[in-house]
Amino acid sequence: MIEFETILILMAIGIISLIITLFLLFTGKKIEPKKEIEQEIFIAKIFNYKIKLVPFLYLKMVLIMFLIGIFSDFLIDSIIGLTFALIPFVAYLIFNTKKDELTGK
Amino acid sequence: MPFIEINTNFRPGFESLHIFILMIFVVWLIILIFSLKKYGVNKTIRYFVPIMIAGVIGEFCAMANSGYYYPGYFLYFSAIGASVPVIIALGWSVNLFIFLHLGKGVASKFYKKQNLKQLFYISVCAGFFGVCLDLLEDPLAHHNGWWVWNTSIQRIYLFDVPLTNFVGWFVIIGGMTLLTLLIDRSRFSENRKLLINLTAPLAFFILLAPYFLLR
Fold first, then answer.
1. What does the mean pLDDT of chain B come to?
2. Given this model, what pLDDT does residue B145 score?
3. ipTM of this predicted complex?
4. Entry pTM
5. What share of chain A is helix, strand, coil (3-state, %, to 5)?
6. Mind telling me how many Å the CA of B41 is from chain A's nearest CA?
7. Is A33 helix (H, G, I), strand (E, B) or coil?
8. Is the CB of residue B101 less than 8 Å away from at least one CB of chain A?
């Protein structure tokens, strides 16, 4: 249970932070944003599709956790969890697939 | 009590918890280097530090409220009677970075106009994707004792994990994605963006304090 003094300290931190945030928001000069060109960094190829670093790392994390689940006698729940956890990766693949320029597939 | 604590009862041997810790640390290191190369120091701090603050605040409050704990880790942040492993804080920055990019990759393809609505869709996607990963991670963590829930409290459970945990994931990842993208697209100088991004998550304490007083 949190003590009353702690709650007051939390509230004080919150109020000071809010004041600083509002001060920064309302006193800042606005500058024209530079147009940034995002570099496409592909690092892996799965089924003829190039894949970027972030979704690749996500897939790696999911598969490692799935393997931990299998080896710790947690098979059924791991399969259910894997099904849910693959949704972001599959959604990303559907919207972002770039066909291999070499094979044209 | 010091803010950072070292656990002398760190689990010996090599078990699933150590694989989990190693995995989070390696992924964190890779995306940190990737972010530094792609976005520079300023933007990298904005992508990594505020979510760690928000994540740790969320964990502290949830732990003080519902009584779950993290046994067997090495380094802990310790405050308001709760201890959160440092690796969990790093894990939150991994979550934000990955789900922000995946959310952007999906939502900006089905809604191409660059306006507030697009930011909202990206944030909802990021929050939803976070919950999808958590449906694998949290039951597995509970099963292997990476963190332990206090099951004596009556609440709704999904795969042995309180439903409020998934709501928390959605709110923290979705909210921080929205905040980060709003600041990203603002027309302030980079230094001001960084300051706003660091102070804004702390302002949420105002909402948490009445919550603890009223319950």
1. 86
2. 87
3. 0.89
4. 0.88
5. 60, 10, 30
6. 16
7. coil
8. yes
Q: How far apart are CA A51 and CA A60, in angstroms?
A: 12
pLDDT surpasses 50 at B32: yes
Mean pLDDT of B52-59: 86
Instruction: Name every residue whose Cβ is closer than 8 Å to that of residue B127 and which is 6 or more positions away in sequence.
Output: B99, B103, B169, B170, B171, B173, B174, B175, B177
**Domain interval for residue B118:** 4-214
Are residues A21 and B199, on separate chains, in Cβ contact within 8 Å? yes
To test the contact with chain B by mutation, choose from A8, A39, A58, A74 the residue with the greatest count of B C-beta atoms within 10 A, namely A58
How many structural domains does chain B have? 1
Comparing CB atoms, the residue among A57, A68, A71 nearest residue B30 is A57
* Window 109-138 of B, Cβ < 8 Å to A: 109-110, 125, 129, 132-133, 135-137
Q: Looking at residue B13, what is its pLDDT?
A: 57
Q: What is the mean predicted confidence (pLDDT) over B170-179?
A: 93
**Shortest Cα distance from B7 to chain A (angstroms)?**
22
